[in-house]
Design a protein that fits this description.
Layout: E1 2-11, E2 14-24, E3 29-33, H1 40-46, E4 55-62, E5 65-66, H2 72-78, E6 83-86, H3 90-93, H4 100-110, H5 117-126, H6 143-156, E7 161-165, H7 173-190, E8 193-197, H8 201-207, E9 210-215, E10 218-224, H9 225-230, H10 235-242
Helix pairs in contact: 5-6, 6-7
The structure holds adenosine-5'-triphosphate and nickel (II) ion.
Pfam family, one: ABC_tran
Main location: membrane
Organism: Nonomuraea turkmeniaca
Length: 245
């Protein structure tokens, strides 16, 4: 789903992300962790061509498409549909005066897809939301429901991989578990691949197969999540783990 080699993202002369290898296969979850400013979001956004001011080198393939050389039209087909971006605060991204069902229908049409009640209801059920919520406005649902709706949108559009940037950090702890549960389920049931950016190592340990640890734009450690988190080889990873509550 995602295949990255020798990725370098530069702002001016400063390299803010240097990622030699990053692969996410079908049904797999890879997490990028690291402190604020380490380059996690930049890495994630660059994979979808969403860092317009940056200078990028290396190879990026998402859903088989070479992101750096693909014509804009091909890139738009992938972006937001087969490869969906889920951000920290979905409510901010949802237009406040538009009912969720209307938003979903528009998104489907924009991508040239059928927008039947059945398709929309199924997407809601896939994230354990009552399809009746489609009649609500964004401010009439909770943060956790809004985040699951963002994931439902991705599912409706046929997402094969979700790129999520801190998808639970704006949510209450109890609600975080709901969102994580939904992501887990989608992996298991649909083979959804997941690239997750998070500073929450507790969350990462419950869902990720592999972990990349970034510091100052560089990948300082990577490997199986269980191994990296149980026996970190890099001092920085140990520090991160010790900072856990
Ligand atoms: N458009 C931009 N122009 C210049 N520098 C940028 C730009 N966007 C990000 N940066 C810089 O790139 C570095 C990495 O930022 P990034 O947002 O990727 O970090 P992060 O690991 O996601 O941090 P956080 O956990 O706070 O979200 C930071 O030093 C940031 O200031
Ligand atoms: Ni970030």
């Amino acid at each position: 789903m995602i295949e990255v080699r020798d990725l370098r993202v530069r702002y001016g002369t400063r390299v803010v992300a240097d990622v030699p290898v990053l692969d996410v296969g079908e049904g797999e979850c890879v997490a990028i962790v690291g402190e604020s400013g380490s380059g996690k979001s930049t890495t994630l956004l660059s994979l979808l061509g969403l860092t317009p001011d940056a200078e990028i080198s290396g190879q990026i393939r998402v859903c088989g498409l070479d992101v750096r050389t693909a014509p804009p039209r091909r890139l738009r087909e992938i972006r937001g549909a087969r490869a969906a971006l889920v951000m920290q605060s979905p409510q901010a991204a949802l237009s406040p005066a538009t009912r969720l069902g209307v938003l979903m229908r528009r998104a489907l049409r924009l991508h040239g897809r059928e927008a039947t009640e059945q398709i929309m209801s199924e997407a809601m059920e896939a994230v354990l939301l009552d399809p009746a919520l489609l009649r609500r406005y964004p401010h009439e649902v909770s943060g956790g429901q809004a985040q699951r709706f963002a994931i439902a949108l991705a599912i409706a559009l046929g997402a094969e991989v979700i790129l999520a940037d801190e998808p639970t950090s704006a949510l209450d702890v109890t609600v975080q578990a709901e969102v994580v549960g939904v992501l887990r389920r989608l992996r298991a049931e649909r083979g959804l691949a997941l690239l997750l950016v998070s500073h929450d190592l507790a969350l990462v340990s419950t869902i990720a197969d592999r972990v990349l640890v970034m510091k100052d734009g560089v990948v300082v450690e990577s490997g199986a999540a269980a191994e990296v988190l149980a026996a970190p080889s890099h001092p920085y990873t140990r520090e991160l783990l010790e900072a856990l509550p």
